[in-house]
Design brief:
Number of strands: 16
Structural class: mainly beta
CATH topology: Jelly Rolls
Distance between the termini: 8 Å
Number of helices: 3
Mean pLDDT: 87
Low-confidence stretches: 1-5, 217-221
Largest sheet: 16 strands, mixed
Order of helices and strands: HHEEEEEEEEEEEEEEEEH
Helix content: 10-25%
């Protein structure tokens, strides 16, 4: 089931070996940069390839047929099609243990990400999600931002006015939210779990030799 799902999302068969090694409890080398990609993926406007490094301050864009998996430090990002992200250009800090903190700007599109030790904010035009070592799926929509803290802790705020909206602590996709613009009749409301899977989270965590905390639960597909 996992294999068919990952193949259906377009990722190369080589990525499947990561899951096999994770199941066997064997570590895989943690290599920075683009791990796998499909279609049009660019770094600062230049076409990327597998192995291309993504550095602090870089902007990654994907086209209508593009997606990619990127490692920065102990963080892993699955970036969907038609997306634009700027990595850590503001408030960037790097710890002696290799941890990376700062601000990620998701201007367009969506991404699923898993984090090691960090104090990172994911900022969209309407919402800011404060990450404190967790996993999160974020999608920019026309009039709202979707945010699911899949497990861990997140601080949800409005980007336009900095208003703190909610603190969430989750273990298994417990508190997905829609966040709306300043001046809306509602600023935040409950949402369903959409467009990201446990199989994808397992794959991302395996790339940095971790497992999600729900590993003993029945996975969703």
């Amino acid at each position: 089931m996992v294999k068919s799902l990952l193949l259906a999302t377009g990722f190369a068969p080589a990525m499947l070996s990561v899951l096999s090694k994770a199941v066997a409890n064997s570590e895989v080398p943690v290599a920075p940069g683009i791990q796998d990609m499909n279609g049009d993926v660019r770094i600062n406007g230049t076409a990327a390839t597998v192995g291309s490094l993504v550095n602090i301050g870089d902007t990654v864009t994907t086209g209508a047929d593009g997606n990619c998996v990127i490692i920065i430090g102990q963080h892993v990002y699955l970036i969907d099609e038609n997306s634009e992200l700027e990595f850590y250009a503001e408030d960037f800090k790097q710890g002696l243990d290799g941890s990376v903190s700062g601000k990620i700007k998701l201007t367009l599109g969506s991404m699923l990400s898993v984090f090691g030790k960090t104090d990172t904010n994911i900022s969209t035009p309407l919402a800011t999600i404060g990450i404190r070592g967790t996993a999160c799926y974020v999608a920019v929509e026309l009039d709202r931002t979707y945010a699911c803290v899949c497990y861990g802790r997140g601080e949800l705020s409005g980007t336009e006015d900095g208003l703190h909206l909610e603190s969430v602590v989750t273990t298994y996709h417990d508190s997905p939210r829609y966040i709306y613009a300043k001046g809306s009749a509602r600023r935040i409301e409950e949402a369903p779990v959409v467009d990201h899977t446990d199989a994808e989270l397992r794959m991302l965590e395996a790339l940095v030799n971790r497992r999600p905390p729900f590993k003993r639960k029945k996975l969703r597909y």
